[in-house]
Design the sequence.
């Protein structure tokens, strides 16, 4: 009975509210320690069987085999069937086996009934060790267990139009981040400012003598300040782009269908980096105060970026759409009249004379959860969607979708935290039915938590649990 009244949001809490200088639990090694000994990996939750009756059609078997849930849930075949049950909508959480996720992370999920056949979302929780690839001097570094970096990684991937993109991102995005950080291991551990250029081998392609460069120097009177923090942000941004490019290359051979919003958290050297590409949300609760760590990217919030792209590259509109926005669809009988509109440069409204091109469907239409790009998709950033087309058309939508996340940084060492401070990550399915304050009030209100502590049971009433299910 206890498990049935647990709130999904209570398990979505990641207790990252204490800096590493405090007492640490065995699953939280120092950031610069040697690679942690990996615990035995739980097998990925097996595909659910077709049932106890006769053999199911091959099509059904293939669909079942492609359905999986995060490894750390350790679901049995029966648990996987319950996770895929649209009627029961059971809340799935990691088993209470004494083996904790890093930083006492909690997690819960429930299928979005009726929206898709299977749960297209995925999640990932990893401790990743980064071995440096080169030294600042340019010479390859000898492999050393004591010179690398360790970062903690959490990711939520909200899939749509298929689960392939979310599945692929959950397995590979943290590896792309690790690859991007390899060149920065020595730089990030050096208190001096990052070097402007990494040296290359003399005579190698790309090397040049700066004395031969001629050009105006007046605008370069001083060098821009680049921080270590911005290097990590750039590494995460590049990793998202490389992940999206890999999906584009492998989308046919590996059946990477659909796309996904991605919300990722990286803890490295005392700082929390929250990267969001999509409409998921992250908040930090510190001493009862709610601190937003992301913002949603939707057709409404990115209207001007979308309109600017449509204005600069009208060929992307295919003669079917207009980059202008009107309060409603323009009617043919209104040709020649003056109607309210706004373009890529405007936040307010003005009047313009309606012309024939204005009868086209608007690039951005609707409002709230019904807002769409090209009348098709309701998010403007994410991974995948390389095969997405306008309904009843061959016009691609991907050029308007950005894979780059917005990265926000929170320095844990600059604030005092208590055991109840938490970082909450959730997809839009949670935030559509509850507010930041409601999520905070439904989470842990007392008891230990964070590194070095064992979180107590976080319970909610059946009414709250039904509300979080939507």
Sequence:
């Amino acid at each position: 009975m206890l498990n049935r009244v647990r709130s999904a949001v209570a398990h979505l809490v990641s207790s990252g509210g204490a800096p590493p200088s405090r007492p640490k639990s065995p699953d939280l090694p120092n950031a610069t320690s040697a690679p942690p000994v990996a615990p035995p990996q739980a097998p990925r939750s097996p595909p659910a069987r077709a049932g106890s009756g006769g053999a199911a059609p091959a099509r059904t078997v293939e669909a079942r085999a492609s359905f999986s849930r995060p490894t750390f849930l350790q679901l049995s075949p029966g648990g996987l069937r319950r996770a895929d049950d649209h009627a029961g909508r059971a809340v799935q959480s990691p088993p209470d086996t004494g083996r904790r996720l890093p930083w006492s992370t909690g997690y819960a999920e429930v299928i979005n009934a009726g929206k898709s056949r299977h749960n297209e979302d995925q999640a990932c929780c990893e401790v990743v060790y980064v071995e440096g690839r080169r030294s600042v001097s340019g010479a390859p570094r000898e492999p050393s267990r004591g010179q690398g970096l360790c970062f903690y990684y959490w990711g939520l991937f909200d899939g749509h139009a298929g689960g392939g993109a979310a599945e692929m991102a959950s397995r590979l995005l943290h590896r792309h981040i690790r690859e991007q950080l390899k060149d920065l291991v020595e730089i990030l551990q050096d208190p001096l400012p990052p070097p402007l250029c990494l040296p290359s081998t003399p005579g190698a392609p790309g090397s040049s003598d700066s004395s031969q460069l001629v050009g105006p120097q007046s605008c370069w009177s001083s060098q821009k300040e680049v921080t270590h923090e911005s290097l990590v942000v750039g590494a995460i941004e590049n990793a998202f782009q490389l992940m999206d490019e890999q999906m584009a290359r492998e989308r046919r051979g590996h059946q990477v269908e659909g796309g996904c919003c991605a919300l990722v958290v990286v803890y490295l050297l005392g700082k929390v980096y929250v990267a969001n590409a999509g409409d998921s949300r992250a908040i930090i609760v510190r001493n009862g105060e709610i601190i937003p760590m992301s913002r949603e990217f939707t057709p409404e919030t990115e209207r001007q970026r979308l309109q600017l792209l449509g204005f600069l590259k009208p060929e992307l509109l295919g003669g079917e759409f207009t980059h202008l926005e009107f309060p409603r669809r323009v009617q043919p009988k209104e040709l020649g009249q003056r109607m309210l509109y706004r373009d890529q440069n405007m936040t307010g409204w003005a009047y313009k004379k309606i012309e024939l091109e204005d009868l086209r469907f608007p690039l951005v239409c609707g409002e709230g959860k019904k807002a769409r790009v090209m009348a098709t998709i309701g998010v403007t950033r994410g991974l995948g969607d390389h095969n997405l087309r306008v309904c009843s058309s061959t016009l691609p939508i991907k050029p308007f979708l950005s894979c780059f996340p917005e990265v926000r940084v929170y320095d844990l060492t600059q604030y005092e935290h208590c055991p109840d401070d938490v970082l909450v990550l959730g997809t839009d399915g949670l935030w559509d039915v509850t507010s930041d304050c409601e999520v905070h009030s439904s989470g842990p209100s007392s008891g230990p938590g964070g590194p070095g502590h064992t979180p107590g049971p976080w319970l909610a009433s059946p009414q709250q649990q039904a509300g979080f299910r939507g």
